[in-house]
Design a protein that fits this description.
By secondary structure, the protein is an alpha/beta fold. About 55% of the residues lie in helices and about 15% in strands. The chain has a six-stranded parallel sheet with strand order 2-1-3-4-5-6, with helices on both faces.
């Protein structure tokens, strides 16, 4: 079972998210919180796998709470978890801030129920999910910063040819299973390659790999 912590300052919205998650056969809500400070404390007590985090909340907002959860997991003061940020506001500043804080995903609250559940499962697997409208703008933000050919070659030299292939397919938005099918290797092998890429590039997750790929010319718009 995927253990989920739901964080939202609006009782009705929080209750709705709890109902959706608890109705899924592979998930259970282990705790609720009405602000970011409560979320961090709840995670210490209940050890959720995935946190559904609202952005605009009193006391401590969702961006700062995400940062505290991620930093706390690194220094051992908070049990590790993956954070999916949920918001009513499709604003660039929230998208960038959430991803910089360490969120594994960004989703709008008006997303269909199946997308919310899919986001929880995706984050739990260690992958990242970003609302389609936000993805388009993220790429638009990154593309003007692409380096010249020399910079691309220097970046590519850090990885093996197969690792570069995996990076390019990640940038296309493919899952591990889809990458495996494309390269005729097992999903476990793809996970190994992704792990090597993250280690070599000192990156946190797949979102950062995609951004790195565009910035360093290994992926094209």
């Amino acid at each position: 079972m995927i253990r989920v912590l739901v964080v939202d300052d609006q009782d009705l919205v929080r209750a709705g998210a709890v109902a959706v998650v608890d109705a899924a056969e592979d998930m259970t809500v282990v705790a609720e919180a009405a602000d970011g400070a409560q979320a961090v404390e709840a995670q210490r007590r209940h050890r959720a796998d995935v946190v559904l985090m609202d952005v605009r909340m009193p006391v401590v907002d969702g961006i700062e709470a995400t940062r505290r959860l991620v930093d706390g997991a690194l220094d051992g003061t908070v049990p590790p978890c993956r954070v999916v940020v949920l918001t009513t506001f499709d604003l660039d500043e929230y998208v960038y801030a959430a991803l910089r804080a360490g969120a594994s995903g960004f989703l709008l609250k008006d997303a269909p129920t199946h997308e919310l559940l899919a986001a929880v499962r995706t984050a739990h697997r260690g992958d990242a999910v970003v609302a389609p409208s936000a993805t388009r703008r993220l790429l638009a933000h990154v593309l003007p910063r692409l380096p010249d050919v020399a910079a691309r070659d220097r970046a590519a030299a850090l990885l093996s040819e197969r690792e570069r292939e995996v990076v390019r397919l990640l940038a296309e938005g493919l899952s591990n299973a889809e990458i495996g099918a494309r390269l005729f290797v097992s999903e476990a092998t793809v996970k190994t390659y992704v792990g090597r890429v993250l280690t070599k590039l000192d990156l946190r997750d797949r979102v950062q790999v995609v951004v790195w790929a565009y910035r360093n010319g290994l992926a094209e718009a």
